[in-house]
Each structure stands twice: as C-alpha cells, then as structure tokens.
Design goal:
- This protein has helices spanning 4-12, 23-31, 33-41, 63-71, 87-90, 102-108, 114-124, 138-144; strands at residues 17-21, 45-50, 75-78, 95-100, 127-133, 149-152.
- By secondary structure, the protein is of the alpha/beta class.
- It has one domain: TIM Barrel.
- It has a six-stranded parallel beta sheet with strand order 1-2-3-4-5-6.
- α2 crosses α3 (33-41) and α2 packs across α4.
- It is flat.
Amino acid sequence: MFSEGRSACFRDHRLFCTVNIDTVQARLCVFNREIIQLLDRLDFIRLGISEDFEGFEMGIEHLVLKTLLNVGYRLFLDDPGSGRANVAALTTGCYEAVKLDRTFYRHEVQKPTFNIIMKNIMQYCPYVIVEEVEDRQEIPVLQDAGISAVQCYLYRGVSFSKVISLI
C-alpha cells in the first residue's frame, strides 16, 4: 500500500490521506489485528466518517467511534450538509476535521453569513475542508472564512511520484 518512502513523504510534508470507512470497516479498524498494525504504522491516515455511517450522530456514545478515538485514530466528518447530517454530529467533538459537502458549500458561500457559519463549525471542529473547489478565485474567500484546506479540481491528477511538484 504505502512504501516507507511514500510514508516519509506524507510525514515530511505534513500531508494526510483520508480513507472513508463505513460501519463494517470501522469495526475492522477496531478488531482486526492486521489492520490495527497497519494503521499504527500509517499515522498520516485519517478515517472519514460519512453520513452513511450507522449511528455517527451519537459521537462518543457510539461504541465503535469511542474505541477508534480511544485508540488514537483521527476522524474526519465527511460531507455534512448533503442531507442526513445534523449539527448534533458536528458538536460531538469526535472529529478533527469536517469536509463540507459541495452543494452545501455552494449554497452557503453566497450568503453574507458564510463566515459566521464557518466560525461556528470551527468551535467544534478545528479544521474545515471544502470539497470540489473549481475556481482559483474562490481561494481568497475561503481563506477569509478560515477554511483550512480545499480538495479541488484546480490541478490535474498526477502520479504519486509527482505530488512533490505540487507542494
């Protein structure tokens, strides 16, 4: 999966890799020794919890999420705003970052309250990532709102060996 060289690249440049998991995969991360050992070595991996994750809104009260957090895994809340997530999921304090749904972002960025909404989200989750940014002109607006990162289409896909050229 990741050679030592690729792992070092992630660590040296403070990059991370998000792996979206469902409820079954989360249980494997808790109970499967091989997966546990792999994730322990790949400390730059973040586990993405989406609205499809059964019981994600329970936060720390969800046995599997609680175990993932107690073991030290870092969790991202993926795609709130796409329909089923609610504020309760965000306020649980389980998530290191939130990756905002594109539709939610496109709808809210037009409003004068966008920066206020982002600051409120950041009270519960220190990092906010906006998905599917397509225009460089959006970057200053996002920076002004305190957005931590973008996942975008501003660059064409490259092989892993060329990722360094983008940094």
